[in-house]
Amino acid sequence: MFKTFYHSIIKKMVVSFGTLFNNIYIERYDTSGTKLQKIKVPLSYSSKERMFYRLNVGAETPQAFDTQIVLPRLGFNITAINYDSERKRTLIQKRYAESEDSTTKYHFSEVPYNIQFSLYIYVRNIDDGLQILEQILPYFNPQFNITIKPGILNDTNELLDVPIVLTSITPNETYEGVVKDDPHRIVIWELIFNAKAMLYGPVNTGNLIKDADINLFKLED
């Protein structure tokens, strides 16, 4: 029943999702309104737990602040993949494409799955986090559409529109040590997105129909 195939759809979704957030900057000003610096916010694929550990690595040593990751920073990862029955299609529907060796390639209907992404915003102060949020939220009302090329049948006509829906925004603050003693604060914003993707089954091959026998007859009046 099963056969080996790989279309890299989930990988393409990860790359496409990350590309949405790889050009975010924050600006810092002095009290007179003069811009002091413009910082590009780094982006990486990592879970919240792994990033939080790296942010606090060596916290018990005097050299802790020399080894910690510089903030602000963005991180994201896949947190769930769920079947979406509301977008189910007819299973016997096929899509064809002609190949160079006079055969046809085809695949059956795509299977709808929702890929859930979590985007984490790590900052030291509130204003940095709000700057990043305001560069993201206006594009999601609550969804933003991206287009990828699945490349299943290797033709240029095959495109897949994927709505990415922002479902929740959650702030969180963590402290090291006693709050009153100038703590080492990390502010984390977690944004949850659902990408309404399609997954494809294996590609099958068939021969072209070159001849057809047709019987014609005239009905009597």
Textual characterization of the structure:
By secondary structure, the protein is of the alpha+beta class. The chain has helices at 9-19, 48-55, 64-67, 126-136, and strands spanning 25-29, 35-40, 43-45, 73-83, 94-98, 103-108, 111-123, 143-148, 160-176, 184-199, 204-207. Helix content is 15%, strand content 42%. The protein has a six-stranded mixed β-sheet. Strands 5-6-11 form a three-stranded antiparallel β-sheet, with no helix packed on it. A two-stranded antiparallel sheet has the order 1-2. It starts with 8 loop residues before the first helix and ends in a 14-residue tail after the last strand.
Characteristic terms for this protein:
about 220 residues; STM4215-like; three-stranded antiparallel sheet; about 15% helix; about 40% strand; elongated
How far from one another are the termini?
Answer: 53 Å
The CATH topology label is STM4215-like
The appropriate CATH architecture is 2-Layer Sandwich
Largest sheet: 6 strands, mixed
What is the residue-averaged pLDDT?
A: 83
Helix proportion: 10-25%
> How much of the polypeptide forms β-strand, as a percent range?
35-45%
Shape descriptor: elongated
Summary, kept brief:
This protein is α+β, with helices and mostly antiparallel strands and 221 residues long. The protein is built from four helices and eleven strands, in the order αβββααββββαββββ. The chain has a single domain, classed as Myoviridae tail sheath stabiliser (STM4215-like).
